[in-house]
Amino acid sequence: MKLIVNDIEHEVNVESNMPLLWVLRDELDIKGPKYGCGIAMCGACTVHIDGNPVRSCSYPISAVSGKVTTIEGLGTPKALHAVQEAWIEHQVAQCGYCQSGQIMSAAALISNNPSPSNDDIDAAMSGNLCRCGTYPRIKQAIRTAIAKQNEQSLSPDLIKAILGDVE
Ligand code: FES
Ligand code: FES
User: Fold this and answer.
1) Which residue range forms the structural domain that includes residue 121?
2) Ligand 1: which residue has its CA nearest to atom 3?
3) N or C: which end of the chain has fewer CB within 10 A?
């Protein structure tokens, strides 16, 4: 079957009930998504399908009907995603094991809701567990990423259109 991951099309020959996480890690050698619980309870395996976060450990490959994005496809080393930049600025990671899942959930959140409330953030991130307790830095980094994203969306042309020519 065909699978598009990070904008690259792959042909994979696997059982239809194989979880997406297994396909990514074992068949395609994409190791960003992590195996934590295997039962959709920890978020370590989070990837996007058409921009929405899913737990790839519990998502059969046969159910994948859109484009898959893993943390490897979220940004590039020269053009990091706003969430990745914010994570570095706040030095969020400790052991790092949960962090690709945290980042993917945060990126989906701010893409689908550019002005989330604290409750929205808590709801979106509640399924991503961190044994190292990096939650306070995660929240700070999400706030920074939202500010960065809003800055990026205000292009000079858009600012000019809103404000007109201000001398
Ligand atoms: S490994 Fe998928 S949610 Fe824990
Ligand atoms: S940084 Fe160690 S589990 Fe989250």
Assistant:
1) 2-153
2) 40
3) C
